[in-house]
């Protein structure tokens, strides 16, 4: 059986990139010179951030495609990576709107930490603890504030400034040059709103006791004895039936 999202560890490139991109994104976001002309101004930090992020989202695109074999919902991340790649790569090629790279990575991505920490809590047996609940509440709150509300505010700022007229009386960015950014933003913001609605629905079902796991839905009544699968003399999978009647699987994260 394929691992569920909570059982699969965040990929190493994902964790490393977040550790580098978020601090650099905050540096770019706080650069007042970039905000003076959001379209044309750029800095060494913003150029590095946009270039590195383009490479990361290219990796995320192929990784998400591969992961769809196990988790069909990863098609959402395929869309996420395509939208992000279009925006960042176009920013690198055109040299425009670099400050919004700082907004995206410096403000939006910190909420991802709580998703990774949720996986850690589940793997270490804290999946039903108060810390798990607190992590979920804070994570959802930040996601709503930074991605949903903040995304709409930044989107309004982007449209207002980029379509406004500069000192020469001409639009700062005509629609032909603005279109890739607009399409990417609409797609990304739509995903953010969809994800928040889904998180809220799942949280409500958990709190009201109405949510059943996929195993409870698809494997009701299935009972299996304790079964251990080995690979090269090392235990890899351990299947058994829990007291709640669910098929449980523990797996080793290392084959070495």
Quick take:
The longest helix is centred in the last third of the chain and has 34 residues.
Give me some keywords for this one.
single chain; 256 residues; mainly alpha; 3-stranded antiparallel sheet; 9 helices; 63% helix; elongated
Task: Give a verbal description of the structure.
- By secondary structure, the chain is mostly helical.
- The protein contains 9 helices and 3 strands.
- The chain is 63% helix and 7% strand.
- It has a 3-stranded antiparallel beta sheet with strand order 1-2-3, with no helix packed on it.
- A hairpin with a 2-residue loop joins strand 1 and strand 2 (234-241).
- Helix 1 (12-29) packs across helix 5, helix 4 runs antiparallel to helix 8 and helix 5 (99-108) packs antiparallel against helix 7 (130-162).
- The longest helix is centred in the C-terminal third of the chain and has 34 residues, at 175-208.
The biggest beta sheet is recorded as: 3 strands, antiparallel
Report the structural category: mainly alpha
Total strand segments = 3
Tally the helices. Answer: 9
Helix content estimate: 55-70%
The pLDDT mean sits at: 80
Spatial strand arrangement across the major sheet: 1-2-3
Radius of gyration: 22 Å
Ranges where pLDDT stays below 50 over 5 or more residues in a row are 1-7
**Could you give the distance between the termini?**
21 Å
**Share of residues in strands:** 5-15%
N to C succession of SSEs? HHHHHHHHHEEE
């Amino acid at each position: 059986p394929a691992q569920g999202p909570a059982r699969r560890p965040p990929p190493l490139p994902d964790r490393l990139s977040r550790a580098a991109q978020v601090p650099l994104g905050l540096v770019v976001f706080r650069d007042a010179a970039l905000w003076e002309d959001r379209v044309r101004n750029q800095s060494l930090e913003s150029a590095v951030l946009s270039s590195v992020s383009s490479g990361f989202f290219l990796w995320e695109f192929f990784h998400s495609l591969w992961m769809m074999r196990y988790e069909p919902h990863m098609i959402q991340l395929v869309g996420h990576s395509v939208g992000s790649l279009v925006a960042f790569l176009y920013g690198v090629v055109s040299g425009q709107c670099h400050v919004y790279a700082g907004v995206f990575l410096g403000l939006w991505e910190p909420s991802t930490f709580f998703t990774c920490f949720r996986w850690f809590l589940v793997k270490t047996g804290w999946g039903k603890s108060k810390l798990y609940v607190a992590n979920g509440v804070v994570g959802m709150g930040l996601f709503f504030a930074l991605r949903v509300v903040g995304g709409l505010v930044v989107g309004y700022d982007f449209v207002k400034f980029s379509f406004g007229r500069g000192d020469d009386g001409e639009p700062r960015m005509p629609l032909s040059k603005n279109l890739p950014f607009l399409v990417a933003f609409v797609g990304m913001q739509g995903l953010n709103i969809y994800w928040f609605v889904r998180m809220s629905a799942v949280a409500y079902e958990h709190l009201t006791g109405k949510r059943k796991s996929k195993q409870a839905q698809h494997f009701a009544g299935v009972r299996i004895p304790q079964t251990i699968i080995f690979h090269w003399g090392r235990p890899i999978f351990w299947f058994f039936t829990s007291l709640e009647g669910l098929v449980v699987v523990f797996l080793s994260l290392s084959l070495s």
